[in-house]
C-alpha cells in the first residue's frame, strides 16, 4: 500500500477530483495548505499599503492506494493538475505499513 | 399478583413504544408517559408497603413532577422519610428504584428527610428548582404537605431576590454553553436560547417571585397580553412535539436538533419539499420561530424582573433626548404610542440613538414598538429621516444588539417588508451556522469590524450607503428558488428606490448583490495566471470602488457564515485576484469601453472572413494583435499560418515607399528576436519599428518596418537570400557573430561619438503589468544594437512576449515585455541588478 500526497493549485482541485473519481478512486483527504517551493511568495503594493504573501495557497490531496495502481493514480493527477507553468505542484509517494478501518477493525486492502 | 406480572413484562420502554404507535404526540404524550411511569412506580411501591403506611412519601420532581415526561428524560424522584422510617425507606428504595434502573431508565434519585431537603436547598440550586414542580406520587401525603409549607416559607423577601438573581445567572451561563441565540442551525431545543428551559425559568421565577401559578396567571397579572400568551403556548406545544420526535429519532436523551435528524423529523411531521424550499427548511423555520418567540418573551420578562428586584431608591426624572425619546436611568424610553404610530421615524431614531450612544432600550419600549409595528402602513418607509437613521444604525452596528432588537420586534420587517420572508429562514447546508436573517445582521456587524483593518479601502469608497445596504441585503433573494443572487439583484432595486437612492446608486447596489460571490468563486476556481481572464473580471467589475466594495462584502459575508468558512488561505487567494483586477482597473486603457467595442468589432469582422475556422482561431488571437491589423490582414496571416508546418519560417517583404515592411511568421522560441535582428543587420537593414505578437498557440507574427543603411532600393536587396539565411539563423545554423563582425569591420558612423554614451539607460519594472516584467532600454542607435540587446536577453533565458522598438532622433527606446524561463516575472533583486548591468553593457559595447 502506498500513500500518495499531491500538492496542487487550488483551481485545479475539481479537475483532479473528477479525474480520480473516473479512475475509480473514491476516498481522499483534501486540505487547504500553504507553502512554496521554487516558486516563491510575492509582494503586492496597492495604494501605498504593502501586502506580503510569503506562502502561496495550495491544495493537498492524500490518497491511500494499493501499490499496483500507484503509477496510474500519479499519472491521473499529473494530467489533471498540469498547466505547464511554475507552481503546478508536486506529487509524493510514501510507503504505508497498514490501514485499519475504525468501525470494523478490518485491515490492509480491505480497509482502504 | 398475576396482574403485576403482566405489567412487569410490559416495561416502561415498551409502554412508550405503544404510546408512539397510538400516534400520541406533544403534551398528550408527555402526560400519558408520566401517568404510565406513575403507575409502574406505584405498583412497585405498594408491593412492599400498604397504602396506609405512614412516614414515607414518594415525590416526583422536575419535568416528571410537571407531568411533562419526555421519552428519554430523567425520572427525578425524591423519597421522603422520617428518622423512624429509615429502615422502611431502604426497602422502598430497592423496590422502586431497582426496577426502574433495570428497565434502562435514567433515574435521578434522592432519599432525604424533610430537614435534609431544607438544608440542601441552600447549597444546591438545581435541587431547589426541581422542588418547585414537586408532586406526590404515593405514600404519606402529610410529609409532602409539610415539605411544601417549609419550602414556601423559605422564600422571604431576601431569598426571593437571591433566587431571581441566581436564576438569571444560570440562564446566562446556559445560553453561553448551549447557544447564545436562536438562529443556530443545530439548536438545542431544551437548553439553548428560546428553548424549553427558558420557558421553565419564566414560570419558576414567576411562581417564586410573584406567586403566579402558571402562564395563564401571568396574563391575568398583566405580565403579558392575550396574544403573547397564545403565541408562547403555541411555541411551547410545538417544541413539545419536536422534542418528542427528536427523542424518538435519536433513541436517547438528546435535545440538540442535529442535521442528521432534521430531515427525518421534518418528514414525520409532514413537511414536504416545494420548488422554493425543502421540507426540512420549512420545518426548521418553524422551530426557529418558536425558539424566537420564547426567547423574546423570556428577555422581556427578565428585564422586568431586574426592575422589580432592584427598585429605584428615589424617583428619577426622565431626560428628553429628542422629540418623543427620553432617557430614564440609562435606558432609552418611548412612551407615547400615538406619537409612534403617527411618526414611525421616531422609532428608527430611537434605535439609531441606541446604536450610536450604546444605550439600551427599556423593555417596555420594546413591547410598545412591537405592538405598533403591525399597523404602520407603507408610506413612512419613504421617509428621508427614516432612511437617514437606518443607515446610522447599519454604520454603528459593531455588535448585533440593535439590529437583533429591530428584527425581534418586527420593526425591521415593517420597514423592509421583503425581509419578512427571510425571518428564521434556514439554508440546509453545512456551511451556514445561522439562519438567513441572522446571517445578514452578522454580515453588517462583520463589515463594521473590518473598518480598521481595511481603512484605506473604506476610505476609497465614496458612498458607503450602497456598501452597507448591499451587505445587509446580499442574501435577500434566498428561499425564492433559482439563483438567489439574481433574484436579490431585482428585489433590492425597489428597496433602494424607497430609501431614496439615485439611479446610479441603485445600479451599483443591484450589481453588488448580483455579484456578491463573484470574487470568491473566481479566486478559488480560476487560474489567476491567465491575463485574459483577469481582464474579463476587470471589465465585468468596471470600477475600482465597486471592486473594493465587492472585496469587503466577500469577507464580511464569509466571516458571518460560520467559524470555519474564512481563513487566511482563502484570503490569500482573494487578495491575489483583488490586486490583479485592481491593477488592470487602474490602467484605464485596458478597460476603456471604446477599446472593448473595437475588439468586439474586429472579432466580428475576422470571423466573417474566416468562416468555419473562426471558432478555432479567434480564441488564440490576443487583443493587441486584433487591434493592430485590418481584418483582411489577419485573415491573410491565418492562411499563411497553415504553411508554417512545412516552411518553419515565413518572410514576406513589401515596399512601402519610404520604408519597407516585412511580415515574419514562425513558431516562438527563446532568442528568436535576436536571430531576426542579427540577420537583418547582416543585410544592412535597420529596424525602425517592430510589432511582435505571439498568438496563444505559440505562433509568432512579427511586422518589422525597416530601411536600408546603404541606400539600396527595394529591388536591389536579395530577399530570397535573406529569407534563406533567416531560416538558417532561426534553426541555429548561422554564425551571426562572426558574419556581423566581418560585415561591420570597416563601419564608422558619422555620429558615433563616445561622449554621447551616457544616454544609455536600462529600466526594469514590475509594477506596470501584473503578468510581465517590462524592460526599457534607452541607447544610442547603432545597426547591431537590437541584436546585441535581444541576444543578451536570450542568454539569460528570458522570453520576449511583446516588444516596441521606437527611434527618436538618434536615441533608441526599446521596450520589452518579458518573462523568465519558468514563465515568471523577474523579481529577484540581485538578478535585476545583474540584468541591468548586462544590458547596459550590451548597449554600449555593441561592436559596430
Characterization of the model:
The complex is a heterodimer of chains A (112) and B (848). Chain A is 20% helix and 37% strand. Chain A has 112 residues and is α+β, with helices and mostly antiparallel strands. Chain A has one domain: Alpha-Beta Plaits. Chain A has a 4-stranded antiparallel sheet with strand order 2-5-1-6, with helices on one face. In chain A, helix 1 packs antiparallel against helix 2 (70-81). The relative contact order of chain B is 0.04. By secondary structure, chain B is an alpha+beta fold. Among the domains of chain B are: 2-154, Beta Polymerase, domain 2 (2-Layer Sandwich), CATH 3.30.460; 159-309, Nucleotidyltransferases  domain 2 (Four Helix Bundle (Hemerythrin (Met), subunit A)); 648-845, 3-Layer(aba) Sandwich (Biosynthetic Threonine Deaminase, domain 3), CATH 3.40.1020. The termini of chain B are far apart. The interface between A and B is medium-sized, with 25 and 23 residues.
Using the coordinates above, name the CATH class of chain A. Answer: Alpha Beta
> Which residue ranges of chain A are poorly predicted, with pLDDT under 50 across at least 5 consecutive positions?
none
- Broad structural category of chain A: alpha+beta
Q: What is the mean pLDDT of chain B?
A: 86
Number of helices of chain A: 2
Alpha carbon gap, first and last residue of chain A: 9 Å
Global geometry of chain A:
globular
Kindly identify the CATH topology of chain A.
Alpha-Beta Plaits
Tell the overall outline of chain B. elongated
Order of strands in the sheet with the most strands of chain A? Answer: 2-5-1-6
Amino acid at each position: 500500500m502506498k500513500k500518495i500526497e499531491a500538492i496542487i493549485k487550488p483551481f485545479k482541485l475539481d479537475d483532479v477530483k473528477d479525474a480520480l473519481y473516473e479512475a475509480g478512486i473514491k476516498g481522499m483527504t483534501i486540505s487547504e495548505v500553504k507553502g512554496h517551493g521554487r516558486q516563491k511568495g510575492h509582494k503586492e503594493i496597492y495604494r501605498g499599503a504593502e501586502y506580503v504573501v510569503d506562502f502561496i495557497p495550495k491544495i493537498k490531496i492524500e490518497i491511500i492506494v494499493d501499490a499496483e495502481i500507484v503509477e496510474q493514480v500519479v499519472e491521473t493527477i499529473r494530467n489533471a493538475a498540469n498547466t505547464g507553468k511554475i507552481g503546478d505542484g508536486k506529487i509524493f509517494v510514501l510507503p504505508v505499513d497498514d490501514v485499519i478501518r475504525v468501525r470494523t477493525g478490518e485491515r490492509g486492502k480491505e480497509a482502504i | 399478583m398475576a396482574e403485576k406480572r403482566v405489567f412487569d413484562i410490559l416495561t416502561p420502554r415498551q409502554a412508550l413504544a405503544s404510546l408512539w404507535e397510538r400516534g400520541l404526540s406533544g403534551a398528550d404524550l408527555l402526560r400519558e408517559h408520566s401517568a404510565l411511569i406513575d403507575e409502574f412506580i406505584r405498583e412497585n411501591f405498594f408491593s412492599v408497603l400498604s397504602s396506609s403506611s405512614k412516614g414515607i412519601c414518594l415525590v416526583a420532581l422536575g419535568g416528571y413532577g410537571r407531568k411533562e415526561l419526555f421519552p428519554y428524560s430523567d425520572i427525578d424522584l425524591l423519597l421522603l422519610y422520617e428518622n423512624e422510617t429509615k429502615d422502611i425507606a431502604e426497602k422502598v428504595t430497592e423496590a422502586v428504584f431497582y426496577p426502574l434502573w433495570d428497565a434502562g431508565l435514567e433515574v435521578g434519585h434522592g432519599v432525604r428527610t424533610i430537614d435534609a431537603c431544607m438544608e440542601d436547598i441552600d447549597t444546591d440550586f438545581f435541587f431547589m428548582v426541581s422542588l418547585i414542580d414537586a408532586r406526590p406520587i404515593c405514600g404519606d401525603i402529610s410529609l409532602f404537605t409539610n415539605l411544601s409549607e417549609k419550602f414556601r416559607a423559605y422564600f422571604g423577601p431576601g431569598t426571593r431576590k437571591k433566587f431571581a438573581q441566581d436564576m438569571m445567572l444560570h440562564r446566562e451561563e446556559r445560553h453561553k454553553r448551549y447557544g447564545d441565540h436562536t438562529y443556530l442551525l443545530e439548536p438545542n431545543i431544551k437548553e439553548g436560547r428560546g428553548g424549553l428551559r427558558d420557558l421553565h425559568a419564566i414560570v419558576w421565577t414567576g411562581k417564586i417571585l410573584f406567586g403566579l401559578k402558571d402562564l395563564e396567571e401571568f396574563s391575568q397579572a398583566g405580565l403579558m397580553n392575550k396574544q403573547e400568551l397564545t403565541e408562547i403556548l403555541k411555541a411551547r406545544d410545538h417544541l413539545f412535539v419536536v422534542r418528542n420526535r427528536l427523542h424518538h429519532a435519536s433513541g436517547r436523551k438528546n435535545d440538540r436538533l442535529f442535521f442528521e435528524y432534521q430531515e427525518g423529523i421534518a418528514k414525520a411531521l409532514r413537511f414536504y419539499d416545494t420548488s422554493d424550499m425543502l421540507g426540512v427548511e420549512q420545518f426548521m423555520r418553524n422551530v426557529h420561530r418558536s425558539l424566537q418567540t420564547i426567547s423574546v418573551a423570556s428577555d422581556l420578562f427578565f428585564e422586568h424582573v431586574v426592575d422589580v428586584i432592584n427598585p429605584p431608591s428615589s424617583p428619577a426624572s426622565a431626560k428628553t433626548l429628542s422629540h418623543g425619546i427620553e432617557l430614564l436611568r440609562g435606558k432609552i424610553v418611548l412612551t407615547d404610542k400615538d406619537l409612534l404610530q403617527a411618526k414611525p421615524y421616531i422609532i428608527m431614531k430611537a434605535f439609531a440613538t441606541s446604536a450610536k450612544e450604546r444605550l439600551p432600550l427599556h423593555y417596555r419600549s420594546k413591547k410598545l414598538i412591537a405592538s405598533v409595528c403591525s399597523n404602520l402602513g407603507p408610506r413612512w418607509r419613504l421617509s428621508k429621516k427614516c432612511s437617514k437613521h437606518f443607515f446610522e444604525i447599519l454604520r454603528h452596528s459593531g455588535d448585533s444588539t440593535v439590529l437583533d432588537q429591530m428584527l425581534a420586534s418586527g420593526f425591521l420587517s415593517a420597514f423592509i417588508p421583503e425581509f419578512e420572508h427571510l425571518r428564521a429562514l434556514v439554508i440546509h447546508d453545512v456551511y451556514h451556522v445561522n439562519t438567513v436573517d441572522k446571517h445578514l445582521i452578522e454580515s453588517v456587524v462583520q463589515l463594521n469590524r473590518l473598518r480598521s483593518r481595511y481603512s484605506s479601502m473604506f476610505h476609497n469608497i465614496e458612498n458607503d450607503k450602497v456598501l452597507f445596504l448591499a451587505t445587509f441585503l446580499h442574501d435577500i433573494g434566498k428561499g425564492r428558488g433559482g439563483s438567489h443572487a439574481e433574484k436579490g439583484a431585482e428585489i433590492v432595486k425597489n428597496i433602494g428606490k424607497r430609501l431614496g437612492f439615485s439611479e446610479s446608486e441603485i445600479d451599483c447596489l443591484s450589481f453588488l448583490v448580483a455579484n456578491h460571490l463573484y470574487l470568491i468563486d473566481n479566486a478559488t476556481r480560476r487560474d489567476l495566471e491567465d491575463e485574459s481572464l483577469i481582464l474579463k473580471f476587470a471589465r465585468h467589475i468596471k470600477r475600482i470602488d465597486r471592486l473594493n466594495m465587492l472585496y469587503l462584502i466577500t469577507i464580511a459575508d464569509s466571516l458571518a457564515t460560520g467559524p470555519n468558512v474564512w481563513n487566511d488561505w482563502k484570503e490569500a487567494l482573494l487578495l491575489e485576484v483583488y490586486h490583479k483586477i485592481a491593477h488592470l482597473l487602474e490602467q484605464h486603457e485596458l478597460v476603456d469601453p471604446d477599446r472593448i467595442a473595437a475588439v468586439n468589432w474586429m472579432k466580428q469582422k475576422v470571423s466573417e472572413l474566416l468562416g468555419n475556422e473562426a471558432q478555432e482561431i479567434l480564441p488564440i488571437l490576443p487583443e493587441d494583435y486584433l487591434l493592430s491589423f485590418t481584418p483582411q490582414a489577419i485573415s491573410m496571416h491565418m492562411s499563411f499560418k497553415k504553411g508554417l508546418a512545412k516552411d518553419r519560417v515565413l518572410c514576406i517583404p513589401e515596399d512601402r515607399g519610404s520604408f519597407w515592411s516585412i511580415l515574419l511568421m514562425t513558431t516562438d522560441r527563446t532568442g528568436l528576436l535576436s536571430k531576426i535582428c542579427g540577420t537583418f543587420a547582416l543585410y544592412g537593414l535597420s529596424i525602425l519599428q517592430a510589432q511582435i505578437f505571439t498568438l496563444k498557440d505559440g505562433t509568432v507574427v512579427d511586422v518589422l518596418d525597416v530601411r536600408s543603411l546603404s541606400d539600396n532600393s527595394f529591388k536591389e536587396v536579395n530577399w530570397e537570400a535573406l529569407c534563406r539565411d533567416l531560416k538558417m539563423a532561426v534553426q541555429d545554423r548561422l554564425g551571426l557573430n562572426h558574419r556581423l563582425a566581418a560585415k561591420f569591420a570597416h563601419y564608422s558612423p558619422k555620429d558615433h561619438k563616445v561622449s554621447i554614451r551616457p544616454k544609455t539607460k536600462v529600466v526594469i519594472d514590475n509594477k506596470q503589468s501584473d503578468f510581465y516584467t517590462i524592460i526599457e532600454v534607452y541607447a544610442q542607435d547603432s545597426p547591431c544594437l537590437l541584436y546585441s540587446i535581444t541576444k543578451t536577453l536570450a542568454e539569460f533565458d528570458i522570453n520576449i512576449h511583446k516588444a516596441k522598438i521606437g527611434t527618436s532622433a538618434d536615441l533608441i527606446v526599446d521596450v520589452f515585455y518579458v518573462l523568465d524561463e519558468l514563465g515568471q516575472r523577474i523579481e529577484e533583486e540581485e538578478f535585476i541588478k545583474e540584468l541591468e548591468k548586462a544590458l547596459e553593457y550590451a548597449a554600449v559595447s555593441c561592436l559596430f
